[in-house]
Amino acid sequence: MSSEAFVTALVLAAGGSRRLGEPKQLLPLGDSTVLGTVLDVVRTCSLDQRLCVIGGAAGRVRGAVDLTGFDVVENPSFGEGCSSSIAAALRAVDVRAQTLVLILGDQPGLSPASVAALVTGRGEAPIAACRYEDGRGHPLAFDRSLFGELASMHGDKAVWKLMDRHASRVVEVPLAGLIPRDVDTREDYDRLLAERSRPSSSPTTRGGSRMPGSDAVGPPRSDAGRA
Predict the structure, then answer these.
(1) Hey, which of 14, 29, 148, 185 would disulfide with 85, CB 3.0 to 4.6 Å?
(2) Reading across the β-sheet that carries 49-54, which strands appear in turn?
């Protein structure tokens, strides 16, 4: 990564998968798993630090998913919502970091191009969000000046509430395609597999939106993507 700005990516993968009934992180996907696929994508991105926060089924995740290249943070309070995972991980963020990119661990349609566009598109804005053809979604990027607020959040959908408070300071980075599908339920997973089995399928097919670390429903459909 360029020395101009230190960028940390945080993969949120602490969800308890309550609606699915089994660890979504470990669901098979191609030659990997749902979480493993996301981590493989993040490894190809130009970043200075890679963090992954786990919680639900943490022992099984460590045993089954290749976490090489990531600083792993365990959040024993993952049941309190995604905000607790972000707070736990912020303690491990490098002091040089100027940008924190939040990435969903159950959104395997993520692309390196989206991450690069988000980081570049943020410019000097405190917050950047991806604007897909069907709404606002992850990943999201935050300037260091907001790390304190991120660390003090509580409950579900907290990131979106923070963004609402700073609405005039959010820049939207336009991206082609739909919000990548995330996996909350067995139906979501089945649809993901079906999409990937079709030669013409696109990895940017939209799914539901909720933040790993809580199985809470995300913001209104016009701003799909969760936090």
Answers:
(1) 14
(2) 71-74, 49-54, 7-13, 99-104, 135-143, 127-132, 170-174
